[in-house]
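Researcher: Quick sanity check before group meeting.
Model: Go ahead. Protein one:
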Amino acid sequence: MNKFYPPKENKLLIKFAKFILPWALKSIYKIEKIEIDINDIEKLKSLKGKRVILCPNHPTTNDPILMFYLSKLIDHNFNYLAAWDIFVETPLRGYFIQQLGAYSIIRGTIDNNSFKKTIEIIKEGKNFLVIFPEGDTCGLNDYLMPFQTGVIQLAFWALDELIKDNSQNDSNLFIIPIAIRYKYLKPMKKEIETILTNIEKKLKIYDPKLKMHDPKNNLLDFYYERLMKISEKLLNSTEKYYNLKSNTNLPFNERLQKIKEFIINKIANYLDIKFKPDMNLLDKIRLLFNTINTIVYDNANLNRNNFENEISEYERKLYQEKKQELKSFIDDLNRVWRFVAVYEGYIKEKMNDERFLEILKRIEWEVFGKEKSYGPLKAILKLGKEINLKDYYQDYKANKRKCIENLIQLLENQIKEMLNIL
């Protein structure tokens, strides 16, 4: 059984973290400025003491720190639903965010301990609860991954218990969509040029003549040509690595999709996992990550001595070899995840520094094995219209699945509309 990591809420550490937050935002996250309408701040303050679930989009790994900033801004503590992977893969980080009110969930599974804690937090209404409906980041400002229905289902389960409990006179339960968008505070052409050059040199396709840009042409168009050459090189190299037949006549998106599907199916076959017909790519990735992490990390949380005493030296050797092989699959899955939302045309749709750097950062991470941050950034937060689940309770009782699907769509549409105007 996988270990559950509950929220600890260390008051002294929360106070200290809020004290150093301005420094952390600028020095670590490159966020120089945060914009939020005063009316949105007042709305959040007016809901203190009520049951509130904040549902932001999740473009980057910076997003939780913005929710912590909101917590400081309105002087109200939050709880945060966080991926179980964080706690087991980076224990120090996991310990720290636990102290700030975060707790674990194994995504894409029935995590009863996490579900119980979520329902308990919602019912109590002491803190706001932050849940990212996408369940993961994709690194793209203008792309929303499919929202998970779990946030609405958990909220209705809590509402069920509230209504059954006659001592509760107030059964209001508010879900508030939040749009997050990042913009650079200065032109980023110099950074784009540097990243392109570094990647070209690493891939051995650098041409010094490329520095000689014709001023008559758009600079971003020039960069886009170089980006497409890099993408072609990466596709060819990846196809060779996985022994896939390269067909340059196929569109870019089809070739990329074939690589993703090959990796996913290869790992699923090894683990003897059968995907449901309606599973999207992200759900498949989650299922594979969860299965591998359970094998690789779970025994560290069990009685290791008893486990090792019960097996022979040879069996122990085989077990360790299997764990190492599974860890190599994590690299493959991370490769798919880094490009889960990437498609040819994303930059062309809206040619700007933000979109260019979003794609380049994913490629840089793939080529150099490390994710880098660039700035200075401005983060913009916008609150949508609150959804009181109490108003939809009768619809939920009449047709649970349809009601949940409609509310998830409402949540997603609100965030899309806000992102379009930010």
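Researcher: Fine. The other one?
Model: Protein two, sequence then structure:
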Amino acid sequence: MRLAKCTGIPKTVYLTTSVNLRFLRSKNLMWLKKHVNALELYTIDVIYGRRAGAGPAVYGALLQVLSWLFNGIAQARLWLYRHRILHDQPLGCLVVVVGNLTVGGTGKTPVVEKFARALRDRGRKVAILSRGYKSKTVPLWQKWWWSLTHAEEPPPRIVSDGERVLLDSEQAGDEPFMLARNLPGVIVLVDKNRVKAGEYAIRKFGCDTLVLDDGFQYLHLKGRLNLLLVDKTNPFGNGHLLPRGILREPIKHLKRASYIFLTKSNGQRDPELEGLIAEHNPGADMIECAHRPQYLQRFGVPADSAQDRQPLTFLKGRRVFAFSGIATPESFEKFLRDLGALLVGRERFLDHYRFDREDLAQLFAMAQEEGADCLVTTEKDAVRIDERLGCPLPLYYLRLEIEILRGASDFDEAVDRICFPQSGARQ
């Protein structure tokens, strides 16, 4: 008995130590996450000129030096492809690329969804290829091991096989999961190597049309129609490249676009912006469009429930607490105000921020303190919230769709003109 008691002591101490280590590791990770988020928010403030003083000025100068370096790399990469030192690869099918010159916030996902749906409805076998930004990826050491051992890499992750959604938003990424959920009959694949993903879509699913989500900078794939999106409310930021600004490549690279979509329009023409685009790409067609709210979808309520969807008039006069983790939260909040909501509070998180239970408990507590009738977020944020969450207050997300204002009668006509040109039309 004494021996059993003694041998039990180390086991108990070992378990306690293990729990303490896990607790400390979790605490350290939370501390690191908090400070990384704070640095990102500070950087965004410096980029947009929201900070004054010596500190932001010095930090901005450092970012400018890095921006010059980034500019050189971006231009050198394009030069290598243009002079055939680096080679692009054809896949022998229609490839439609939707992308932008800037980071985040131009409204790519609704455009990708509209194009994929229109192509599917015309009988095309469509696959959407995404890199799965901020999704769970293979550890770097494992990629190195595959490279060293010449082992075959795993196939792309299948978010949707056209019939079922197979991955959640954490595994797939926000946009791929949302597209898969909204587009039955369309294949959705995630892989940083879009050539490999395209070959897989053709071989396994018999796809004849590939749509690249956020693929304007992916130069390795040949035979593409480049649809470039430009946010009319903030076309090119402060004109600097990353990390001093929001540009991924110089403005002059507008010339690489086949068609240019001016998004988030209020219907007013912008001669200065249109002139700048025409200066760099005089032959490009411009199609102007707006993101329109459609309805409010209740979170955590079965789809067949009478409470699952509310018209936009539901917001008028209601006390609303808004939260979002997107690139341009101002536009989302403006939609709510324009629809008559009384914003009693708002919380903004970093783009693609993944909410945990503690975050959501705090949001509900803040909303209750402000006497909110409900909370409203974006569709992209809703896919990052655990569906098993208990909601002390009603939680809705705002469903948006894109509508063409100028340059085509509607999306069907735009898809016909871009993807199915008549003889003599531009390829």
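Researcher: One line on it for the slide.
Model: The first strand starts at residue 94 and ends at 100.
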